[in-house]
Structure formats: structure tokens, C-alpha cells
Amino acid sequence: MAACGADTARTLACRDGHAAAQLKLISIAVIFITSVVGITSPVLLARHFQGKPAYDHATLLIKCFAAGVILSTSLVHVLPDAFAALSDCHVASRHPWKDYPFSGLVTMIGAIAALLVDLTASAHMESHTAHSHGQYEVLQVATQEEPDTKKPSMSIELKVEPVVGEVSDSGGGHSHEEMVIRLKQRLVSQVLEIGIIFHSVIIGVTMGMSQNQCTIRPLVAALAFHQIFEGMGLGGCIAQAGFTFGTTAYMCFMFAVTTPMGIVLGMILFSVTGYDDSSPNALILEGLLGSFSSGILIYMALVDLIALDLFHNKMMTSNSWLRKTSFTALVLGSISMSILALWA
User: Fold this and answer.
1) The pTM is what?
2) pLDDT band with cut points at 50, 70 and 90 for residue 11
3) What would you measure as the largest C-alpha separation in the chain, in angstroms?
């Protein structure tokens, strides 16, 4: 409790509502611009390479870098902040928060929820593609009488015309597999954006509710770089998923505005309720939402990004140089995002 009192004294010394409000307005513009730059860079880079021989390799490397960024975001940024919020002296002295490690529990729930969404959506995709591609086959039913009979042999052939958009037998399996992979990539991008949006809202609301200028000032620059690398991570997945222009623009826009909107929401919450980022209720909400989003991001990074690309990608099995380069990109993404934990 003595440490808690010392922290409160330092916080009160830095409280300045007017200066904090000015810093928040500056941060809204800076974070929006850097978010746009971060998420559109891999998308534009992928469009530049599209149709060229290096396109598949470029998108794969971008996605491996993205996987490293997302993994580092979840384990180095989001999860420690969630643990810190629920371990704060204002929260940890209460029941039931001091009796059980809720951060780990909610993180596990987030990972299981992401798995459930993944399984449900995958089953839906498989049933849909099976209905449209694999339901109708060419069947041949032949009946032959015994040789000693005088009746002529009869042959019955049942043919079903292929549905619109179905390919021939020679390339049908390959095209069907590519379609399933593309649908999976789109699902990964959408679930990943949900997890990142949770995280971005938490960051924005926490900054918007804070009246501590000593905390906000270094966060402005740190969050600018944070949004660039996180945007590159999400943008790499969006680029590989091959969305339409409208969907791509919508997903990029949602990522770019989420943190600024969170800041505005936090400012409104402070003006209405008087809660700042150090109030117990705000810390509990931050800890629970942070843990949940961390579980989503950990699952998506390890299962749907790293495992899918490094172990189940055909290009990896036939190209040792590409495997090494992809692993290097993964490590660089992890290191780049981890270094930012020194400031944000």
C-alpha cells in the first residue's frame, strides 16, 4: 500500500487536464496518419508485385514479417499490460481479483474462442465448397448379363453437367484447393483484425481517459511506430487474402480509425463519469479486454500464420532459401515490435 501511495503522488504531480487534452488531439492526427501508412504499405507493395514472378514470394515474406509482429504484439505488449492492469494495487487488493489469475484465464478463453470461430468457419467453408464443387460426379453404372444368356449387354451412363464456374477434371482439384486456401486466408485476416481492434480500442480508451501528461507525451511517438508495425502485420495478411478493393479499403480504414476513435471515446468517458485510467473499474476493463485480445492474437499468430505458412505451404517444401528467408522475416518482425516495448 505504501508503493501504491507513492505511485498516486507521482501521478498527481503530472496531472494537467489542459496539457493532456492538447497531447491527445495531436496523438489522434499522428496515430491516424501512421496507421494509414503502416497498413497500406504491404497492400500497395503486393499490388506492385502482382502478376510478376516474385509476387507469391513477396506476399509470403510480408506475411511472415506480419506473423512476427502479431506474435510480439500479443506476448510483449498486450499480455503484460493486461497482467499489470489486474495486478495494480487498486485492483489486486479486492476480491475476487486477488484470489485468482484472471489474466491467464481470460487469455485462454480468447484463444479457445478464436479456435471455435476458426473451426466453425472452416466447417462452413468446406460444406459450402463441397456443395458447389464436389457434390456432383460422373457416375457409370454398367450391368452385364451372364455370358451364356442371349440378352445383349446393357450400359447405363449417368452424366451431370458441371455447374457454372466449375473446372474440368484435369484442374478441378487444384483450383478447388486454391479456393479453399483463399477463403481460409480471408477468414484469418478478418479474425485477426477483430483481435487487433480490441487491442487498439483498449490503447485509445486508456490514453483518452488519462490525465497524466507525463504518460501521454512519450506514448504519442511510441504508439506512432507501434501502429506502423501492427498495420504492416495486418496489411500483409490482407494483401495475401486477395480481397476486393472495397473490402480492402474498408478493413484498412477500420484499422486506421480505431485507435483515434478509442481516444475520443476515452475523453468522453472521462468527462461523463470522471473515471481516469487509474480508476479500479477502468483497470479491470482494460485487463479483461487486453487478456481476451491477447488470446486471440496468440492463437492467430501461432496457428493461422506461422504454422500455416512455415509447415503447410507448398513453396516452403521445395525451396530451402525461401524457408530461411521467411524465418528471417519472422524474426525481424518479432524483434522490431519487441523493441518498441521499451517505450509503449
Assistant:
1) 0.69
2) low
3) 108
